[in-house]
Structures are given as structure tokens and as C-alpha cells.
Specification:
Layout lengths: L6 H25 L7 H6 L29 E6 L18 H6 L7 E6 L5 H6 L1 H4 L7 E5 L7 H5 L9 H23 L5 E4 L8 E6 L5 E9 L1 H21 L4 E4 L1 H6 L16 H21 L2
Parallel strand pairs: 1-2, 1-3, 3-4, 4-7
Antiparallel strand pairs: 5-6
Length: 301
């Protein structure tokens, strides 16, 4: 455990560290291409290299939080089934949740609330924000939406040719970002910082689906699409959204789960199925989140 320094020393250390981070990010930004994540996003996501977001080497159990503060916090995680397979009404041991991992290392006084809703999207998240989030009076909210916002293969691909339909993809992404911003703005109005976690890539290709005569969802394993081609563009839109908030000095932070997975190809236990994180994948996403959390708590001292 690090010693608790006098307030003046912490402030001096923080300002020097922040100045160095900004200066280094400026130099890196001058040397990289326009496709690299914007400098503001790099600072907010605590990136360790000019082309990658935080990609830790897992060491389980994780290092406990180093920056305790004088009051406990209510930490709320809000999203779809990637938070925990299933939904809030069916909590159980199935799946690997970053929240379950974080419970083992967060200061015990902090309250962690998981509000996960399988199959839902950002629009549903906004429409139910008050009932699932605001009512809990959280100090920090983590949003993890996106996997369901493109409506699977039928939402963005032509069924006859399996060609990506850009106009449909653009419309769905714009709708997703609209409702993400509405959630974030509602939280910022209440002085609640927000962490956005990007979707992780689908593991391989994705099966087509359709509804049968009884309105039951049917998976077509023999008919698949490159869903990541569309999902990757949604991730880029989320990155830009967070960068725009960062440029305005808003407390919105990014954990780039997509990049974390790209940096760990074919690693064991990255997936438990096609779309949900496995033990190893959940652990390294949790480490990325913990890095952001520690920085926020240090600023609150």
C-alpha cells in the first residue's frame, strides 16, 4: 500500500504527471497517421503506446486499488449480456464477468451494482436509465452497449448476396451514438463520471438469424456473415464520441475492449462462446477498467 502523501505533494505529482502525459501524447500525435486514436482519447484511456489502448499482462488476483479516498463510492455497471451472461433478473454463476473480478480488488467500502440486460441496446438503455441507474444515485457509471445495436447479420447485410449494406450500417451506428450520448449527457448533468467500454470482436463469423412462425429466434449455423466488419465501425464511432467529450474536458473515459482483444489473438479463454468474454478476456478488460478507476480516485483526493 502506498503512503498517503500530503495534499500539496499529491497535487504537485499529479500536475507533473499530467503535463508529461500531455507532452508525450503531443509528440506521439505528430508522428502518427490520422487513423490513430486521437490524442485526447489516448490520455483519457491511459494508453501505453501510440497505437494501442491499455493492454495489460494479466496477473490474477489483480493489484488492489492504490488510491483510497475518504468516502465510499457506488459503482454501477450498465449494459447488455457481456457484463454477465443473461440479465439482471437471472444472476448466477454462468459466464465470466469483469464485475465479479473487480469485486475482489475494489475497496470493500465501495458498493458495486450490476445492471445487465441481455439482448438490449443503447436505445433501451436510455429509455430505462432512470429505473436502472439514476435511482441508485451512483458516483461512477460504466456503460457497455453495442453488441446488439446492429441487429445481427440481418441488420446490416443483404441476405441474398451477404454484402454489407453501408446505408443500413450508418443509420444504426448513428442511432446507437445518439442514445449513448443521451445516456452520458443525463449522467454528466448529475456530475456522474462515465466509463465507456467498447464491444469486443465477435469470435469468427456470426450466424444469420430469423424468426419462425411462432416468433422464436432461429440461428442459421450454415449461413454466416462477417459481423466484425460492421461492429468495428461502431467501435470507431464510440472512440470518436469519447474523444469529443475529452476535448471538452468532460469526465468520460474509454476502456477499449475491442483493441484489448485485437492485441491478444487466439489467447486461451478469451471467449466463452462467440460473443461473451472468457476468464482471461474478462480479466484483462477488468484490468483496463481498474486503471481508469484508479486515476479517477486519485483525482478525487
Amino acid at each position: 500500500m502506498l503512503p498517503i502523501w500530503p495534499r500539496a505533494k499529491i497535487k504537485m505529482k499529479f500536475h507533473l504527471t499530467l503535463f508529461a502525459a500531455i507532452f508525450i501524447s503531443f509528440l506521439v500525435g505528430c508522428a502518427t497517421s490520422p487513423s490513430v486514436i486521437p490524442t485526447a482519447t489516448l490520455v483519457k484511456t491511459l494508453s501505453l503506446s501510440p497505437t494501442k489502448t491499455f493492454t495489460p499482462t494479466p496477473t490474477f488476483p489483480l493489484t488492489p486499488t492504490l488510491f483510497p479516498i475518504r468516502k465510499s463510492l457506488t459503482l454501477l455497471f450498465y449494459g447488455d449480456s457481456v457484463l454477465k451472461v443473461g440479465d439482471a433478473s437471472r444472476q448466477g454463476s454462468v459466464g465470466f464477468s469483469i464485475v465479479d473480478i473487480l469485486r475482489t480488488v475494489i475497496t470493500p467500502a465501495d458498493q458495486i451494482i450490476t445492471s445487465n440486460h441481455g439482448g438490449r441496446n443503447a436505445k433501451w438503455g436510455y429509455e430505462n436509465l432512470n429505473a436502472n441507474v439514476i435511482v441508485n444515485n451512483p458516483d461512477l457509471v460504466t456503460l457497455w452497449w453495442g453488441m446488439n445495436d446492429l441487429d445481427g447479420c440481418p441488420g446490416i447485410y443483404d441476405p441474398a448476396t451477404n454484402i454489407l449494406l453501408s446505408y443500413k450500417l450508418t443509420a444504426l451506428i448513428n442511432d446507437h451514438i445518439k442514445y449513448m450520448k443521451m445516456q452520458i449527457d443525463s449522467l454528466l448533468e448529475r456530475n456522474i463520471p462515465v466509463v465507456v467500454i467498447t464491444p469486443m470482436p465477435v469470435n469468427g463469423t456470426f450466424p444469420w438469424t430469423h424468426f419462425d412462425a411462432n416468433n422464436n429466434l432461429v440461428w442459421e449455423d450454415g449461413h454466416r456473415c462477417d459481423f466484425n466488419a460492421g461492429l468495428g465501425q461502431l467501435v470507431e464511432a464510440q472512440r470518436k464520441m469519447v474523444a469529443d467529450y475529452a476535448a471538452l474536458q468532460k469526465p468520460v473515459y474509454l476502456v477499449d475492449a475491442w483493441q484489448i482483444y485485437k492485441d491478444h489473438p487466439n489467447s486461451d479463454n478469451m471467449y466463452m462462446d462467440i460473443v461473451h468474454p472468457g476468464a482471461y478476456g474478462a480479466e484483462i478488460i477488468a484490468q483496463g477498467w481498474l486503471q481508469i478507476y484508479q486515476s479517477i480516485k486519485s483525482l478525487k483526493r
